[in-house]
Amino acid sequence: MRLKKLLPLIGIIILIFIISTLDFDEIFRIFTNINPLYLILSFFSFVPLLLLVTFEWQLLLKSQKINVSFWYSIKNFLIGYFYGFITPGGFGAYTRSLYLSDESGAPLPKCFSNIVTFNTIEFLSMLSVGFIGAIFLSNVYPYLFLIILFVFLVVLILYLFFFKSVRSRYLFKKIVQLKFFSGIRNKLENSVDSFYEDLPSLRDIIIPSILAITGRFFKFTLIFFIAKLFDINIPFQYFILIMVVADVIASIPISIYGIGTREAALITMFSFPQLTNGVFVSYEQIISLSLFWFVIFWLTPSIIGVFVTLHESNFKKSKKII
After folding, report:
1. Between residues 263 and 259, which one has the greater pLDDT?
2. What is the pTM of this model?
3. pLDDT (tens digit, 9 = 90+) per residue, 44-99?
4. What is the rounded distance in angstroms from the CA atom of residue 318 to the CA atom of residue 26?
5. How many domains does the chain have?
6. C-alpha closest to that of 224 among 215, 214, 234
7. Rounded to the nearest 10 degrees, how much is the dihedral formed by the CA atoms of 261, 225, 79, 104?
8. Is the pLDDT of residue 107 over 70?
9. How many angstroms separate the CA atoms of 122 and 103, rounded?
10. According to the model, what pLDDT value does residue 183 have?
11. How sure is the predictor about 172, in pLDDT bands with cuts at 50, 70 and 90?
12. What is the predicted pLDDT for the residue at 141?
C-alpha cells in the first residue's frame, strides 16, 4: 500500500532533477517575451475541450438512461478534475459517480459502470493515437508501439469480458452466493443488476469513441499554437506525433497527471533532429511549454473544481436540511 502512495512521487523527483539543470534566467526571458494577452487567452483553451468531452459523455449517459443536464455534466467533470488531482493515479475522479447518482437518482453501481465505460473509451482513444505516433517514432522508442498494442488489447479484452460477456455477470452472481456475503447478499445482487443495467451497446460507443479521438487531436492542435508562444516552430505533423506519444508515456501511474514523465519524454523526443525537422528546441522551452500545458489543461480545471465541489456539497447539505 505504501508503494502505491510513493509511486506518484517518482514523477516529481524526475521533474525536480530536470529543473535543477535548467537556466532560470532563460525561462524568465521566455515568459517575459510572450504577449500577455495571448498568455491570458491560452487559459481559455481548455473550455472547448471540456464542451466536446461533455457532449461525448452526454451520449453515453443517454444510452444508459441516466438523465442529467449538459450544465451539470460540466460541473461533474470539474469535480472529477479536483478529486483526480488530489489522489494517487487520479483514481479519485471516480468520485464523480457518487455525485452523478445523487443528481440523477440512478443507482450508484449503474453510475459507476457509466464512468468506467467513459474512462475506458478515453484511455483506449489515447492508446490508439499513441500507437500511431509510436510507429512513426520507433527509432526513439523501438518497442513502445508493441507495448501500447499489448496494453490496448488487454484493456479491450477486460472491458468486453466484464461489460459485454454474460459470463462476468454469472461470475459475480456466483461470488455473491458465497456464505461470506450471506448478510448482505440481496444488496449485492441488486448492485450487480444495477451495474449491468442499460449498458451501452457497441453501436452506442462508436460515436463517443470518434469524439474521444477527435478531442485528442484537437487538444494537441491547440497546444501546437500555444507552443508558438514559446518560439517552438516544429512542423505540425512532427509536433502532433511527439505529443501523442508523450501523452501515453505521461499516463504511466508514477506521477501526478504525468508531471515529470511527460517532461522527460518530451526532452528525449525533441532532442532528435529528425523528429523536429532540424529545428533546435532548448530544454527551457520544452519545460516551460510542458508546465504551462499542465497548468492550463489540468491545474486550472482542478482549481475551478474545488469551488464546484464545495458548492455542490453545500447544496446537497441544504437539500437534506429542507
Report:
1. 263
2. 0.87
3. 999 999 999 999 999 999 999 999 999 999 999 999 999 888 776 667 788 899 99
4. 51
5. 1
6. 234
7. -130
8. yes
9. 23
10. 56
11. low
12. 82
Integer Cα distance of 34 and 184 in angstroms: 61
DSSP string, 193-256: HHHTTTPPPHHHHHHHHHHHHHHHHHHHHHHHHHHHTTT----HHHHHHHHHHHHHHHTSSSSS
Residue type, 261: T
319 in any annotated domain? no
CA separation, residue 182 to residues 169, 186, 187, 193 (Å): 18, 8, 10, 17
Rounded to whole angstroms, the Cα distance separating 54 from 224 reads 23
pLDDT tens-digit readout, 221-235: 999 999 999 999 999
Domain assignment present for residue 320? The answer is no
Which domain, by its residues, includes 234?
A: 2-310
**Contact assessment for residue 222 and residue 44, using Cβ atoms and an 8 Å cutoff:** no
Residue 317 in any domain: the answer is: no
Residue 322 lies in a domain: no
Contact in structure between 104 and 67 (CB atoms under 8 Å): yes
**How far apart, in whole angstroms, are the C-alpha atoms of residue 219 and residue 246?**
13
